[in-house]
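Sample A.
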Amino acid sequence: MKEIKAIIEAYNHIDPHTTKAALATVVRVEGSSYRRVGARMLVLDNGLWVGGISGGCLEGDALKRARLAIAKDAPSLITYDTTEDDAHQIGVGLGCNGVIDVLFSPLQMGDASNSVEILKQCLSQPRQTHILLTIMTLEGKLNEKFQAGDVLVYVNKTSLDAWEEPLLAEELSQKIEILLEKGKSTPKSFTLSDGRELEVFIELLPPEINVILMGQQYDVYPLVRLIREVGWRATVVANSQKITPKLSTLTNALVAPEDFETLLIDQNTAIVLMSHDFKTDKYNLPKALKTAAPYIGMLGPRVRSEKILNELSAENTAVSNSDLPRIHAPAGLDIGALSPEEIALSIVAEIRAVFSERDGSFLRLRQGTIHER
């Protein structure tokens, strides 16, 4: 999401009278790759770019491809194969052993249907998972309107009415439901009623992770800075009289404790109890458990959190067995963190692991590939 925001920011500052642009999007990955599907790179015809589609090894060629798409005013799908031992193949010798398809789409500035404008529309709406359908390959046009490079926002099956392909709409809707359950973006191939082949990149675009920090002590600062650096949203719940101007400029939102219930807390939200006051954290834990947040972290040693749970149980406010897995206390991964900055790193890493359904252990111990294929 941070990359998308940077691309939108750069796009908003383009002078359409002097500058043209194209968007490069990774729409398929087979095997290993530094970036996954959905990675983007905005390229200007003056040679500047924002974002990236690899670790830097493909960007030089991508710059040429994007400028060619701008010159031809036509999208193109380019395959980068780093598995072949071919001296003429871009990326050979990198050892990635992957095949990457990148769609280069010239942008019609001011056209509300261009891919960056659609991303802007999605980010301007309330927190929700958006579904984008990008036409990767298609000979000719679909219903005399849609062609390769076009992007459609999918809300439900009626979103596909404009394509006038009822069988395709049914099949595609079923695929989307399956992908939503898996939380996975992927390309899919379909056959149109007239026999033509259509490839669509089905992309799930979830909202950014929102981390709610309940506390205002000095260790909030490095945690907020790191949260913002990785592109997440930071919300601090604290007494406004104890908030410094510096913290106000770092956070996305400051909320008074009495207004906690007004916050939109969804499946992409993490809550960290870090008031450094036993009674306050004990009071906040049941409030946090009433939300949909899948991650609830508590600072402090294990004995402290166990005391909180025991006291709540004695007061008939026991935490259910189904809620216990949501509580991470002490919060953070076991990296030997000592300073507030290192503790912040361990907490952010643990939150990422929880949302990725990983255990946070060493990658060298992982069985199989780093990313699902």
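Sample B.
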Amino acid sequence: MKKIKVVLGKRSYNICIKAGMLSSAGNILKTLNIANTAYIITNKKIKSVYGKRLEASLSKQGILNKFHIVPDSEKAKSYACWCKAIHNLADFDKGKGVCVIALGGGVVGDLAGFVASTYRRGVPFIQIPTTLLAQVDSAIGGKVAIDIECAKNLVGAFYQPKVVISDPLVLRSLPPRQIRNGLAEVIKYGIILDKKFFSYLENNISKILKLNPACLEHLIACCSKLKAEVVSADEEEKTGYRSILNFGHTIGHAIEASVSYGKSVNHGEAVAVGMLCAFDIALMLNMAKERDLIRLEALIKKTGLPTRVKGINIAKVIKATSYDKKIIRGKKRWVLPVAIGHVAVCSKVDDSIIREAIKKRFCG
């Protein structure tokens, strides 16, 4: 088993990575000694595939458990779903002392984490991510949230899990689109922090798309280590360093908001286009080199992610960027590439440049 530590003093925790790890969840919780009761938030599809395995693992260790089912879409991250989960949890808990487990992808993790952070002013929280995106990114770092109509993740908190349990074997049940969805975040790490890792992706993308076990375990470990280092250095974005993790997300989240978080564009597809928009902005500012943009665009294409999006209302996208959480004193902060493996945070970007970059990546 690979263990990667997120170093946060008393809130430190391990990311545990191993094929078949899901069946050991009960042992891990028992060792942590945080609760004898588990409230598991998941969706119907994930429960049907992995629910019995998790339930058996918990029951074997004497951990009473209950599943709470939420919608299989971004719509699960709503006030209504949060409220329903809180009431259901209170009825189940009744003073037993409970932990909340997120069994699912980023949506489930965000909602479950927000439930855990707000119920009884905070109860222990466990992440068991079942998508590539969640294993490499959203399950790590403690950002939990729900959406409101105008913007994604606008209501939330920093609330760290007690452990992250990543089992690469669960990725086999994912459709190809969901694998590609996660690979957008994987590519992001290469651009912002590690040029060698970016080269690894270029050389191994065909094996990764075929879910080669060794490749998957390596990239999950690499991404987890990179994110752990960033979160350990700037847990709540007080220094601004953690904002580099939002490379491609300002426009990416705006694209998602413009389609009301519908299935026409998923998170990874939006982020892929958002990363290219950020590169286009950097080129117009003479910050980046075109050869690096060419490499990024080629990798995105090989991954099967889009380099442009269709049928999007550009005005809605531009408006949605104004709700970005990185805005400070009315100024947008843009995470822009300098070279592969290095980015910079800029606030002085003219709106006309942003508009031009967005238009370049939209068609139809």
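B remarks: The mean pLDDT is 92. The chain has two domains: 2-173, 176-363.
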